[in-house]
Every structure is written in C-alpha cells, then in structure tokens.
Design goal:
10 helices; binds orotidine-5'-monophosphate; decarboxylase; TIM Barrel; 8 strands; single chain; RibuloseP-bd_barrel; alpha/beta; OMPdecase; orotidine-5'-phosphate decarboxylase activity; 8-stranded parallel β-barrel; EC 4.1.1.23
Length: about 220
C-alpha cells in the first residue's frame, strides 16, 4: 500500500515550502496545497511543487459557490492535473455534480462535510441541530448521490462513513499523534486510528511542519502506521 500521508504545506513562502518538502519527501505519499499557499503563489507555485516533489498534488481549495462558478473554477485548474480537489458539500447537490463533471479525468473530487475544527456546539450555532456524526453521514450521502469520489471528515466519523459507502475515498485531517498539541482542531484522532477505520488519505500539517525536527516527526508518524 502506498504511503497515505499527505503533508499539508500551509506555508506562505515558496522557499520555506520547498525546504520542508525536501526534508520529509521520502516519508509522505502526497502534498496538500491549500488556500494559504494557492492564494500566495497560484498556478506557478503549484507547478513548482509538482516538480520539487514528484508526488501527487491535493489542491484543497474548498470550492463553494453557485454550480456554474465552481465548474469554471474546476476548469481553470485542469492544467495543474491535481490528484484531489475539495469542494464544500454544503454547496449542494447540483454544485457537486457540476464540479465532478468539470474535473479532469484522473482528479478525485471530494466534499468537505464538517470541518474538524468544529464540535457539536459550533454546529448548533450555525443552525444545524444534531451530532457531528449525523451531519457528516447526511452530507456523505448527498456527496455520494452527486457522484463525487468521496468526502473529507474527521477520524471520529470515518469508520461509520466507510461502512455506509464501501468504495468511497476518504480524506481525514485533524490528525494528532498521541500527546501532540491540538491547536484549533476539535475532532482529532491519531493517524493510526484514522487509517485503521478506513481513511484513504491522512492529511497532516503542523505535527510535522511545526515540529523541531520535521523529518523525525514524519518518520515517527510513518512508523505508527
Ligand atoms: O480540507 C481539509 O483538508 C481540511 C478539512 C477539515 O475539516 N479540517 C482540516 O484541518 N483541513 C485541512 O487539513 C490541514 C490540517 O492541518 P494541521 O491541523 O496543521 O494538521 C489544514 O491544511 C486544513 O486546511
């Protein structure tokens, strides 16, 4: 099985991103570039990371707009040949259908369900009653019916979603090795637990990028898998 760890390169400086990538490249299976990186460096930066890493690129742009605009955005990133792109499930079924239709052939489109930085109280404040589990399951069903490849959810739900959606592709962020700082993440599990419960991709940022020794941190996490 290939390495499921995708390093979240949430770094605004290109040189710092390349430096970090160079250190841990042999211990990750892919690179996740999100808003922080993309808004600073755009297409050019992504191409540089493709060349520097030689690894699959996950473009985490969390698209959320009307169907026509999201489809246009998907077409605008075709040329970058991302392996994975995110949209928000709350954008609705038509938006997800059009995003998938506009995606490149080898690009997995996955829907963010409920951010791992939120808990049940936060959910209630957005007007959604019920548990994170119920909310994630509902949005997973919507994403599957819209023809998406999978979803993004926390490691606390991935086991249940995997049982319901056997061949789905599951991206799990909010991962924290035992004893590491949670920061702004609220629904955390260890990388090992997420993998055992059916995660296809393990997104890991600060536990590696902010470690005193990123290489040692990446190696340690890899060894737990
Ligand atoms: O879509 C994501 O990747 C994502 C969804 C989510 O619910 N929670 C979440 O943390 N993420 C991303 O996963 C990464 C987690 O980073 P760390 O908390 O530093 O490991 C960040 O790049 C987030 O943007």
């Amino acid at each position: 099985m290939s390495n499921p760890i995708y390093l979240a390169l949430d770094v605004p400086q290109l040189d710092a991103a390349k430096d970090l990538l160079g250190k841990v490249r042999g211990h990750i299976g892919g690179v996740k570039l999100g808003m922080e990186f993309f808004y600073a460096h755009g297409h050019h930066g992504v191409m540089e990371m493709v060349q520097a890493s030689g690894l699959p690129i996950f473009l985490d742009l969390k698209l959320h707009d009307i169907p026509n605009t999201v489809a246009g955005a998907m077409q605008s990133i075709h040329v970058l040949e991302p392996a994975i792109v995110t949209v928000h499930a709350s954008g609705g079924r038509a938006m997800m259908e059009d995003a998938k239709a506009a995606a490149g052939e080898n690009c997995k489109v996955v829907a963010v369900t409920m951010l791992t930085s939120l808990d049940e109280r936060d959910l209630a404040r957005t007007g959604v009653a019920g548990t994170p589990h119920d909310h994630v399951m509902r949005l997973a069903e919507l994403a599957e019916s819209a023809g998406l490849d999978g979803i993004v959810c926390s490691g606390q739900e991935v086991g249940a979603v995997h049982k319901q959606w056997k061949h789905g592709f599951f991206v799990v962020p909010g991962l924290r090795p035992a004893g590491s700082a949670t920061g702004d993440q609220k629904r955390t599990v260890t990388p090992r637990k997420a993998r055992d419960d059916g995660a296809s991709v393990l997104v890991i940022g600060r536990p590696i990028s902010k470690a005193a020794d990123p290489l040692a941190a990446a190696r340690e996490i890899e060894a737990t898998l």
